[in-house]
Write a structure and sequence with these properties.
By secondary structure, the chain is an alpha/beta fold. It has two domains: about 50-235, no CATH class; about 275-635, TIM Barrel (Alpha-Beta Barrel), CATH 3.20.20.80. Helices cover about 35% and strands about 15% of the residues. The chain has 19 helices and 25 strands.
Length: about 650
């Protein structure tokens, strides 16, 4: 009998092993993308051992450099498209593309091509700053599914061109090497079966938060890409010992605490609270604030049935035929319920003057469990200061400041005792200087923000105060002058790999971070709706992972969560409120390289025939629903994936 049991156990173990191996292969095939073309010269090394071909000098000091000793062997190890390799010029595919004149034109236009091999060959041979050329060559390799070569190309930026500086569409400095670090980390985590990860890499740029890169001082540690088991790429996120609470802000239902270990955490009713927020502004198609025709969504009741329209009467167009079918799947559900189902726990209101229905917000909290981050634009777009748009708010003008402080005081006294209130937010990327003086004269602006924060705390000591900054521009000045601001809020659109500023904020001011806006469009020129929605979903997936894995106990431990921009498409963003515009607005780090701001919603309004009620839920909605409110099936799949990783040793 014992022999029979042993035999059965052996057979069962063999079956489990075979099933695991099969799932392992299946996981690889589903995880790794299929390359769009084959490289003529992929290089002799999967992980380039730079120490064999040269020497790293002054690592983590100002005068860092990598000195090449054997250029030919290094080039052979790196392969095509990775400095100092030049074999791209011998590539038959490159020669054919040149012959067919498919690589004519400006290299920047190839960021928007549907043929990634053309983007790769164009950028690999572009007459451009070497660091910029290397970064966009790596991006083309990534988009083409040549992930290993892309990682090598991104790492070459760190090794050879860490001081490269370029500029964004908005003419603010941009550092490709810092982004390359985030790209490598995210790619190795996304594709753990490559069996590699980046360790020790860090680039700090002193004076790197202003508009002038000429005074930048770099300290560079390129780190090292090392071989590792797939299960070690994504380290198990065991919460580290946080230690005792050393600081507390707020003594009511909302508390912001700092632990001895340096991590920050938001508590609501003494329970940890990661902000899973959305920007909510359900504008009816055809209306626009620029034309003064935008109705107040908190009060509109177009069908006169005593229900607020979008929050309570939105319905899901399941089959996307732009009409409400008479079946059980397309019942009226309302945005508030849809958000609750997704896992949303907060919405952001940009300016309290837009908050005209406190009863509705109480219902939002009491019935749906969703809180409110309440804001004052603080003179952004000249709102509230008494200045004209063309003159703009002047943060050195006593009259402007007096009006803005009175406005903020009114906001705090109006909402401070409401149960739905989570936090105060001042401004909205005001440092970009739209109809105000903050970009030209940042110090008076940040001094004023701190002055307002102190005033708020004199009235309400139970809720944290945040700023809404435009990315990290002037972060150093914020750190110096805004000592009474509790949270560094930031609108940021850096790409699917996330944000990369957690460590910078921790070094400079040691404040918690709340991402007040992030997102991507569900439109991609030349691609299908499904392809565009997948790209949007992947962008959100990467950004949320970066937000979550820097909350208390993980990573830098200073993330409080974030707000998706946005819930539903707004058709007025490109100034033609009756048209769902698809013309390019500005360039950015997204698939295709261009931003279409009218397509940022997690759900659309279809073709607009039943606005503001119709909702077509995009793939990104369901991505968040699985991340923020996972089903048992999703949890089991995640557990199985972890088992497969550990069997891949």
């Amino acid at each position: 009998m014992r022999k029979i049991i042993v035999t059965i156990l052996i057979i069962a173990a063999a079956a489990i092993a075979a099933l695991a191996a099969w799932n392992f292969r299946l996981t690889i095939s589903k995880t790794m993308p299929r390359p769009e073309f084959a490289l003529y010269d992929p290089g002799t090394e999967k992980i380039v051992h730079y120490e064999k071909y040269g020497k790293f000098i002054n690592v983590s000091r100002e005068n860092y450099r990598y000195e090449i000793k054997d250029r030919s062997l290094l080039a052979a190890a790196c392969g095509e498209g990775v400095y100092p390799n030049t074999s791209v010029y011998r590539d038959p595919l490159y020669k054919n593309l040149v012959k067919e004149k498919k690589l004519d034109g400006d290299h920047w236009s190839y960021l928007d091509t549907r043929r990634e091999e053309e983007a790769f060959y164009k950028w690999a041979t572009a007459n451009e700053n070497p660091g910029v050329r290397q970064f966009y060559t790596a991006l083309a390799l990534e988009n083409a599914g040549l992930i290993t070569q892309a990682i090598k190309a991104y790492y070459a930026v760190l090794v050879h061109f860490p001081r490269t500086v370029s500029f964004t569409y908005w003419n603010t400095p941009w550092y490709p090497a810092k982004v390359a670090i985030d790209k490598i980390r995210c790619l190795t985590m996304k594709y753990p079966f490559l069996g590699m990860k980046l360790v020790g890499a860090d680039i700090t740029v002193e004076n790197g938060f202003n508009l002038d890169p000429t005074d930048d001082i770099y300290r560079v540690n390129p780190g090292k890409i090392v071989k590792c088991r797939p299960c070690r790429v994504i380290e198990k996120q065991n919460k580290k010992r946080l230690g005792a609470v050393t600081k507390q802000i707020g003594y009511g239902n909302v508390n912001l605490i700092r632990y001895k270990g340096g991590d920050w955490q938001l508590l609501v009713k003494d329970r940890p609270y990661v902000i899973k927020g959305v920007v909510y502004s359900p504008a009816k198609i055809g209306q626009s604030p620029d034309e003064g025709t935008l109705d107040d969504w908190m009060n509109v009741d177009y069908n006169k049935n005593s229900l607020i329209d979008a929050p309570y009467e939105a319905w899901v167009d399941v089959n996307r035929n732009n009409m409400r079918d008479e079946d059980e799947k397309e019942v009226i559900i309302g945005d508030f319920q849809l958000m609750k189902d997704m896992g949303v726990n907060a919405i952001r209101i940009y300016d309290h003057k837009l908050c005209s229905n406190k009863k509705l917000l109480r219902e939002l909290y009491n019935r749906y469990g969703i809180m409110v981050v309440m804001g004052d634009l603080l003179g952004t777009y000249a709102v509230g200061s008494g200045a004209s748009w063309y003159r703009g708010t002047n943060y050195s003008d006593p009259k402007h400041k007096e009006k803005l402080k009175a406005r903020v005081r009114e906001m705090v006294e109006e909402h401070k005792d409401e149960p739905y209130l989570l936090m105060w937010v001042l401004g909205n990327e005001t440092n970009y200087g739209v109809a105000n003086s903050a970009k030209r004269f940042p110090r008076p602006y940040y001094s004023f923000v701190n002055e307002v924060a102190k005033m708020i705390k004199e009235i309400d000591y139970n809720h944290p105060v945040a700023i809404c900054n435009g990315d990290t521009l002037y972060l150093d000045i914020f750190a110096e002058l805004c000592t009474d601001v509790d949270v560094f809020g930031v609108n940021s659109y850096r790409g699917w790999q996330g944000f990369g500023f957690w460590g910078e904020v921790k070094r400079l001011c040691d404040k918690p971070v709340m991402v007040t806006e992030y997102g991507a469009a569900a439109y991609w020129e030349g691609h299908t709706r499904e392809q565009a929605e997948v790209a949007q979903s992947e962008y959100h997936f990467g950004c949320w992972n970066d937000i979550f894995y820097n909350t208390a106990g993980y990573g830098f431990g200073n993330s409080l969560g974030g707000f998706i921009f946005e819930w539903v498409d707004e058709w007025w963003k490109a100034y033609e409120p009756d048209i769902h515009d698809t013309h390019k607005q500005w360039s950015g780090p997204v698939k295709g390289g261009w931003i279409y701001e009218e397509w940022f919603g997690l759900c659309s309004q279809g073709e607009g025939f039943d606005s503001p009620y119709i909702r077509q839920l995009r793939k990104s909605y369901y991505t968040y629903k699985n991340m923020w409110n996972p089903t048992i099936g999703e949890l089991l799949r995640k557990m199985w994936y972890n088992v497969v990783l550990r069997l891949a040793r």
